[in-house]
Specification:
Layout lengths: L3 H23 L3 E7 L5 E6 L1 H5 L2 H16 L12 E2 L2 E2 L4 H10 L13 E5 L2 H13 L2 E9 L5 E5 L10 E9 L3 H12 L3 E10 L6 E3 L6 E9 L4 E2 L7 H4 L4 E3 L6 E3 L4
Parallel strand pairs: 5-6, 5-8, 8-9, 9-11
Antiparallel strand pairs: 1-2, 2-12, 3-4, 6-7, 10-11, 13-14
Helix pairs in contact: 1-4, 3-4, 3-5
Length: 265
Amino acid sequence: MTTIKPAADLAVRAAIAARTEALFRASGAFREGHFLLKSGRHGDAYVEKFAVLSDPAATSELCGYFAASVSGQAGAPGAPGEASVAGRTAPPGAAVAGREAMTGATAAVPLSSRVDLVAGPTTGGVILAFETARQLGVRSIFAEEVRGADGAAHREFRRGFSIHPGERVLLVDDILTTGGSLLAMIPAVEALGGEIIECAVMVDRSGGRAALTSPVTGRVYPLRSLWQLDLPTYEGGAATCPKCAVAEPLYAPGSTGTGVATAGA
């Protein structure tokens, strides 16, 4: 049993990752080409999170895996047996298996004993926190980036949001690269007395981090991802970037992207 269980968990985690990738590709969220990244480096693939977040059924399915990680409840996020997402049907039992993999167990655990609220950072985290909390039957809140008198940026719960001392908090976010958004949220939760039980992201581009450490208290919190994605990046220029070498047009994606940029920039 001790060897079969870990092997089964690994297989189901792989199934979750494959399903997450399929949803990203089907929604057009995983894009291949020649991209100018925020870091200034070039990449031949890009993840546009809002393409998948604009699909309510896909978002609901992905958040179902987040909810499973803290509820311990087996079963599909929607109808039992199969999960149909915008005309795309997951293999029978895939959602059930996914939930079991995220929890490592099939026995039900009372929701109130695991999590009291779900929190995420603006902007994508707002959607994920809401849907995950809806499935768990708890509150959702979000933290915004604000600047202090010294000009330094930090995350803050505003708009009347509160965390009562001792409340168990699940942190969720979309794409983890450096972990900056979640790391900035952790002190905000700690300052209000919340107990972070887990951090969860849809896609991990960090290289496989397993935990996040509070920059204030030094406490270490477990980190889970649905899909770990390794995407190489390059310095711009024909000598270092394969796409520049063949003069493929450079595209600047994201909220600040204005479209096609100068090749080799």
